[in-house]
Write a structure and sequence with these properties.
The chain has 70 residues and is mainly β. The chain contains no helices and six strands. The protein is globular and about 30 Å long.
């Protein structure tokens, strides 16, 4: 599992319905991002919103549905 945010790929250690736990601690403001999940050679991708951004020293990163652009 990985989180792609502004051209950077961060490994996801754990994922829940509304949160991620990243393997490395970084700082990033709230933004749109994409999760990539690969299982048995099949890759799935979906957009998410980093609700409060990513904060170094904070165990969980909240995610929510990405904003719909029309």
């Amino acid at each position: 599992m990985a989180l792609c945010v502004n051209g950077r790929t961060l490994s996801i250690a754990q994922m829940g319905r509304d949160f991620l736990v990243l393997e490395e601690q970084v700082e990033h403001p709230p933004t749109e991002a994409e999760i990539t999940l690969s299982v048995d050679g099949r890759e799935s991708r979906w957009p998410v919103r980093l609700v409060e951004g990513i904060k170094a020293g904070q165990w969980k990163t909240r995610i929510g549905p990405a904003h719909v652009h029309s």
